[in-house]
Amino acid sequence: MTNFERRGQRFMALCMLGVLLFNYPILALFNISGVVFGIPVLYAYIFGAWAGLIALMAWLAESSDRDGR
Questions:
Q1: Which of 60, 53, 58 is nearest to 18 (CA)?
Q2: What does pTM read for this prediction?
Q3: Which residue from 17, 23, 5, 9 is spatially nearest to 56, judged by alpha carbons?
Q4: Do 14 and 53 contact (CB within 8 A), yes or no?
Q5: φ and ψ at 40, to 5 degrees?
Q6: Rounded CA gap, 59 and 24, in Å?
Q7: Which of 4, 18, 30, 40 could join 45 in a cystine, given CB atoms 3.0 to 4.6 angstroms apart?
Q8: Which of 59, 61, 48, 62 is nearest to 18 (CA)?
């Protein structure tokens, strides 16, 4: 398997993680009354998860092949 194929699989897994994070059961956990730094908890979760996915995507795009193949 080439580095390109492995990287594609990792991006697909990251996409599936995004689908999981932004799906109803997980979002319902954060739909509570309360604030985090003055921002409603649900909005803080959405933007935090979004920023985390972007950071993981950037890290994955910039990372080199670790096993040298």
A1: 53
A2: 0.85
A3: 17
A4: yes
A5: -55, 145
A6: 27
A7: 30
A8: 48
CA distance 37 to 15: 28
Spatial contact of 41 and 34, defined as CB atoms under 8 Å apart: yes
Tens digits of residue pLDDT in 3-48: 889 999 999 999 999 999 999 999 999 999 999 999 999 999 999 9
Exposure string over 13-48, b if 16+ CB within 10 A, otherwise e: eeeeebeebeeeeeeeebeeeeeeeeeeebebbbee
